[in-house]
Amino acid sequence: MPLAKTISPIGAPSAGIRLLHHLLDTVIEAAQAGHLVARNLPPVPRGRTIVVGAGKASGAMARAFDAHWPAPLEGAVVIPRGSPLHQGRIRQLEASHPVPDAGSLLAADVIVELVNNAGPDDLVVALVSGGGSSLLCKPAAGLTLADKQALNDALLASGATISEINTVRKHLSSIKGGRLIPPGCRAPVVALLMSDVPGDDPSVIASGPTVPDFSILADARAVLERRRITPSEAVQRALLDPANETPKPDDPRFERVENRIILTPHAALSAALPLAREAGYAVHYLGDNIEGDAERIAQDHARLALELHRAGQRIAMISGGETSVRTRGGAGTRGGRNSHYALALALALDGAPGIRAIAADTDGIDGKGGHAGAVVTPDTLSRAARLGIDGRGLLDETNSYAFFEAIGDLITTGPTQTNVNDFRVILIDP
Q: What's the DSSP call for residue 238?
């Protein structure tokens, strides 16, 4: 498993920074797919076993399934480009994240064909995790890949939540929102899901390719209006077309489908709690389902941390979820929601002594830059000031990467082959 480390640490890390790294490593380890898949194997069918899947963890899930499945096996999963490849019985395809590419289209065609050809004695196993929305792309009739890419870019830049983004995606796709399951599906389907979404709604994980959808076309249109996005004419037509409504829970195609969540962010984050206590910190757990603007959340967390610091308490504030960032810097924008949160937190703490923090994406990729996140120390701003770096200006430009790269406080893990979203810890020492 990749271990968290700073890209260019300045001096030896303090005990607090070492603990922050250890907590992140522990959560990533708890979210590895091998033991989770092995505990959730379905019964062997009379016919073929066909494995399909998509997501940042689907490669590791496929490897574990292949290792533990005692019968013949075939299938394909799609993983992010650059992820480790495994040579086994399940084919691994590559595509782009967070915006789909031609590989996403190819993967969708391969996977749809596998599912459509399954017979009543066969078993379809779907291995689904976060990131699958981009990796598996099959636009609705009348839409092109370029339409989907442009809209994805606009949604990501708008600060929309993952639930909002996936509501739109599902109604512009012929594979998301339960439509991987064809009408009249003859084969039983068991979907093993690793949640990366606040609230663990299975219909939101990778846009729910095997899950009936509760949202409607009007909800998707409302997201675009709320986020002030003017889509192309083709997208507007698609969101008014009743043919693009998603199948609902009473649709007979789901009668033989089981969707099983095998990992939640809470279960993974919980692995960090006893370690923090063993290190002498009382744990203040803020939850694993925090959504909203990363800068505002950082400011709220800073206020709470300063209050606890003034009270003389030794506290570890731990939280997860999926924040969002509305980009404002144009082509120079670089970073991600976790490094953006970290920079906003540093500015709000303003060098307060005894407070250190880490914010990282458990998949190892925090937006643009190849990093997982960043750490914050009491001297974060003073070190930047000595280098002539304007933290406020870079935050306004949504270029947190440049800030933390300059002072050597980026965290890098490489692709972790899992994803339970954001992991944040603020350590408070009186």
A: H
Q: Retrieve residue 311's tokens.
A: 């009270």
Q: In DSSP terms, which residues pair with 293 in a beta bridge?
A: 324
**CATH 3.40.50.10180 domain range(s) in the chain:** 33-263
Distance separating alpha carbons of residues 86 and 77, to the nearest angstrom: 11
Dihedral sign (CA 410, 411, 417, 418): negative
Per-residue pLDDT reduced to its tens digit, 314-369: 999 999 999 999 887 554 568 899 999 999 999 999 999 999 999 999 999 998 77
- Using CA atoms, how far apart are residues 359 and 362, in angstroms rounded to an integer? 10
Q: In the numeric block, which tokens belong to residue 51?
A: 């494995």
pLDDT category at 382 given cuts 50, 70, 90 is very high
Residue given tokens 């033991």 in the structure block: 35
CB 302 within 8 A of CB 345: yes
CATH H-level, domain 33-263: superfamily: Glycerate kinase, MOFRL-like N-terminal domain (3.40.50.10180)
Assigned superfamily of 5-30+267-428 = MOFRL domain (3.40.1480.10)
Question: pTM of the predicted model, to two decimals?
Answer: 0.92
Backbone angles phi, psi at 291, to 5 degrees: -125, 160
Sign of CA dihedral 369, 370, 373, 375: negative
Please report which residue ranges of 39-94 form alpha helices under DSSP H: 58-68
Per DSSP, 71 falls in state S
Side chain identity, residue 83: S
Residue at 420: amino acid letter? V
Q: Where in the chain is the domain with CATH 3.40.1480.10?
A: 5-30+267-428
β-partners of residue 356 are 427
Residues in Cβ contact with 46 at an 8 Å cutoff, skipping those fewer than 6 apart: 121
The answer to whether the beta carbons of residues 247 and 254 sit under 8 Å apart is yes
CA dihedral 323, 329, 331, 335 (to 10 degrees): -40
Q: Which residues contact 75 (CB under 8 A, 6 or more apart)?
A: 49, 50, 51, 52, 53, 62, 89, 90, 91, 114, 125
